Amino acid sequence: MEIIFRNVSFSYNDSEPNNKKALDNISVFLEGNLIHGVIGPIGSGKSTMLELMNGITKPTTGEVVIGNYELTKKFDFNKFRYDVGLVYQFPEKQFFCSTVGEEIAFSSKVFEPKNKNIKNKVKKALRMVGLDDTYIKRSPFSLNAGEKRRVAIASVLISNPKLIIMDEPTIGLDNNSKRKLMKLIKNLKNRYMKTIVIVTHDVDMLYEIVDDVVVLNEGKIIKQGSKTEVFSNIKLLEENKAPIPNVVKICDIIKNKTGIDFGYVDNLNSLVRKIANNFNNNTVGVIQDE
Amino acid sequence: MNIIEINNLTFRYDKKFIYDDFSLNIKRGTWVTIAGPNGAGKTTLVKIIAGLVKTYSDVKVFGNKINRKNISEIRREIGFVFDNPDNFFACETVEDELAFSLENMAVYPSTINKKIKEISHLLKIENILKENPYNLSGGEKQKVALGCALMLEPTILVLDEALMMVDINERDKLYKILKEYNLKKRVTIISFTHNLEEAIYSDRLVVLNQGKIVVDGSFPVVFDEERVMRKIGLEVPFSVELSQKLRLYNLVDKIYLIPERLVDEIWK
C-alpha cells in the first residue's frame, strides 16, 4: 500500500498568527511492501506525519493519499480502518477486556457483529505475533511487557490491514522483547506482505530492519532514501540533530581516525569481524549472530 | 547517611512474590540507577518508595518508616517523574503546568516566575513555555514533566523510565544536566530504567531480576558483569558490547564506553 504526501502542511493552532507549522509543505512517496522508518529530533513532526497517515487529523493544506484512499476527500472511513492499522506508543495501556481473546476480538465484534469466524481470526492474529492459543483465556494484564505489546499488535492485525503504522514500537521493552518484536515486524513484511511505517528514536533497531528512511527536521523532509543512502550521510544527520545508529557512528570514527573505510556494515557482529580481519586476527567463529 | 533503607522487604501481588527478603540502602546525594528487564520489580519498588502500595516490611525514607501520618511530608520531599507524562498534565500551557504545584502550595507568584525561568533555562524549554503540553512531542512532554518535578526542589528525585521518549542526543544532554544538578544541589537521584547507558553518569548501578539484586556496582567495573545483564534481557551500551567482543580477539583489554577511546586503543 503506497503512501503519498503532496505539499502537505499542518499546524496545530492554525488560527493563531505566527503559528509554527508542525509539517511545512512536505511531499513524499513511500513504496508498498517495505519497512519505512521516520526519524528526526524532538518536535520535528514525526508523530504529526503518522497521525496524517492514519486519517486521525487532516492536513491544513495539501493532499494525503494512502493506497486508493484520498484522505483529503470523501472516503469510506470504516473500510480505511480495516486497511490501515495504527499501533500507538504503549498500546497495552488501552487494554480493557478481561481476556486476551476478547481484547483482540473487540474491533471485529464491533464492526462485524454477525461474523461467526471471529474465533479463528483471533487465533490467526495470535499466531502472526508468535503467541499460541493458550493465551486466549489469559488476562492481558497478567502478561509481561513484550507479550502485552504483541497482543496489542494482534488486535490491530485481526482486521488484516495492508498498512501498519507503529509509533515507537520498542519503547519500554527490554532487549529480549525488543528482539522478538523486530523479528515479528520483519515477518509481517516478508511473509504477510504488509507495508510498515515505524516512527522511532530507536535508530539501532531501525537500522537492522528498515528498508527506507525519511529524515524530518522542523517540519521539513531533509532526506529520504534507502537506509544505506540515508545513514551514510552522517554530516547531514548531525546537522539536523537526527539520531545515528551506533554501528554507523563508530565506523565514521574509525574512518576519521585511521582512514580505514569499512563501507556498509549491517550490525555489530559484522563490524567486529571487519575490525578483526583488519588485524588478520583469525579468531573468527567466536562471535555468533543473534 | 542512608536516605532510603529497605530491609528484608517482602511483597507480593496475589500469590506471586515480587520481593522476598530484599534489602537496599541508598546514600544521600548519590545517583543510583536501578535497571532490570520487564517484570523485574522496578515499578513495584517505585510504588513502595512513594508509599503508593502498603508494605509491613522495614522501609525507611529519611530515616522514618512510611506511615499514614508522615506520608504527605515524605512525598513533599520526593519528586516523581513517570514514564507517560500524558497521564499527568492538567494545564493549558507549559508555563502553567510548571507553576501548578507551587501555586497549590501558595508560593508567591514572583517566586514562581523566577523558578520557572530557572528551570526552563536549565532544561532548555524556554521556547515552549506558551505551548499546550498535549501538543508537544513525547520527548518534550517528558522534559516538561521533569521540569515540574524540579520546580519543587525535591530532596529525592525518582525517575521511572522518565526519559525514554527523549531522543538519544537530547537524553545525553539531559543526563549531563541532571548530573550537574545532582552534584550542585546534593539531590539524591533514583532512576529506574532499562537503559544502561545511564550508568556512566550515576554513582551506582543496581540490576534487578525477579526481585533480586543480580549486579551492584559502579561504572566501569560493573560492566564486567555484562553477560549477566545480557542474559536477563538488558541491552548493554554499544561500546561495552563492542569492547567485550573485541576482547575475544585480544584487540582491547578492558571496557571502553567512549567510542573514540575504544578506537584509539584498537589502533594504538
Descriptive key words:
heterodimer; A: 290 residues; alpha/beta; Rossmann fold; six-stranded mixed sheet; four-stranded antiparallel sheet; 11 helices; globular; disordered C terminus; B: 268 residues; 2 domains; 9 helices; 35% helix
CATH architecture tag of the largest domain in chain A: 3-Layer(aba) Sandwich
Strand content of chain B: 15-25%
Q: What's the domain count of chain A? A: 2
Task: State the helix count of chain A.
Answer: 11
**CATH-derived architecture of the largest domain in chain B:** 3-Layer(aba) Sandwich
Strand content of chain A: 15-25%
Strand count of chain B: 10
Order of helices and strands of chain B: EEEHEEHEHHHEHEEEHHH
**Poorly predicted ranges of chain A (pLDDT <50, ≥5 residues)?**
284-290
Biggest interface, chains and residue tallies? A-B, 47 and 42 residues
Strands in their spatial order, largest beta sheet of chain A: 6-7-8-3-9-10
- Using the CA coordinates, give the radius of gyration of chain B: 20 Å
Number of separate structural domains of chain B: 2
Give the oligomer, counting copies of the same chain as homo and different chains as hetero: heterodimer
Main structural class of chain B: alpha/beta
Distance from N terminus to C terminus of chain A (CA atoms, Å) equals 31 Å
Shape of chain A: globular
- Any idea what the CATH superfamily of the largest domain in chain B is called? P-loop containing nucleotide triphosphate hydrolases
Shape of chain B: globular
Structural category of chain A is alpha/beta
Q: Report the CATH topology name of the largest domain in chain A.
A: Rossmann fold
